[in-house]
Design a protein that fits this description.
By secondary structure, this protein is mostly helical. It has nine helices and three strands. Helix 3 packs antiparallel against helix 4.
Length: about 280
């Protein structure tokens, strides 16, 4: 988009020189609304990319909101002695995905509307959707990395952003986590012939409705506390920097893992009460 870019170079002295020159020419002035800093490093010994993205947004009132995001990704998939093995596993995964898609499509065609009345059928549909999303994100990451490396090869001294490649890698990790969770649930279907597992399944089926009502009321109270914690601690404690981090931290608090002194030192109501 628009803006005024400044490349800091490839070493520390050059970066200091560029920053000093920008400072002397008032590169950041009262009309500046935000400053972005982005760089990417690569460790060839362990084949990891480090993608850093930081910015600060300036408000008309004079305040500023900083934000930093660091992503570590292995964007080279086929490196080392296990490259062919990884490629073979990925090919087998696609073949299995096509087989299960064909099997569920055939089953859906036979059962029609009755197919969507089973819990495990919905889980199979969700698995297929997540698998398609995983394949799309994988090829999107591969394409983005190849495009960036070609740019870097033609112009080694120009800045190339790996931000989209890092975002695709993070999204791929989330989808893979969901797939592992759903595949673990699929084992419950295989264990239904066991008497104890069958008893557990029938018990969960009987209490599904009251358990669902309890989950609704629990989530209302849980989110209310999360919003309050976000407002109280969000500006000073990193664990409360956004709503999703608050939910994760609050779950840790439920399990007993939290720093009470850190929260007590931030809360202005608590400070007034101790004076």
């Amino acid at each position: 988009g628009g803006g005024y870019p400044a490349e800091l170079g490839y070493d520390y002295p050059t970066a200091l020189t560029v920053i000093a020159d920008l400072h002397s020419h008032n590169w950041v002035d009262p009309q500046t609304r935000s400053v972005f800093v982005e760089f990417t490093v690569y460790n060839a010994n362990i084949n990891l990319f480090g993608i850093a993205f930081m910015f600060v947004e300036f408000l008309p009132t004079g305040g500023g909101f900083p934000y930093a995001h660091f992503a570590v990704a292995r964007l080279y998939s086929y490196v080392g002695p296990f490259a062919n093995f990884i490629l073979a596993c990925q090919i087998f995964l696609i073949l299995f995905m096509l087989y299960f898609m064909y099997r569920e499509g055939k089953k859906m065609y036979k059962q029609r509307k009755a197919y969507f009345r089973g819990f495990f059928n919905w889980m199979e549909v969700t698995l297929i959707i997540c698998e398609f999303a995983m394949v799309i994100l994988y090829f999107a990451r591969l394409w983005e990395v190849d495009k960036n490396l070609m740019k870097l090869h033609h112009n080694p001294k120009d800045f190339v952003s790996f931000q989209y490649a890092g975002a695709a890698d993070e999204s791929l990790s989330v989808i893979m986590g969901i797939l592992v969770f759903l595949v673990t649930l699929r084992f419950l279907k295989l264990f239904r012939f066991n008497k104890r597992m069958s008893l557990l399944g029938s018990t969960l089926g009987e209490i599904a409705k009251p358990l669902g009502m309890f989950c609704i009321s629990f989530m209302i109270v849980f989110i209310a506390f999360a919003l309050m914690a976000w407002l109280l601690f969000g500006l000073q404690i990193d664990k409360f920097r956004n709503f999703f981090s608050v939910l994760e931290t609050q779950m840790s608090i439920v399990l007993g893992d939290f720093d009470y002194d850190e929260m007590r030192s931030v809360n202005p109501l608590d400070r007034k009460s101790t004076r």
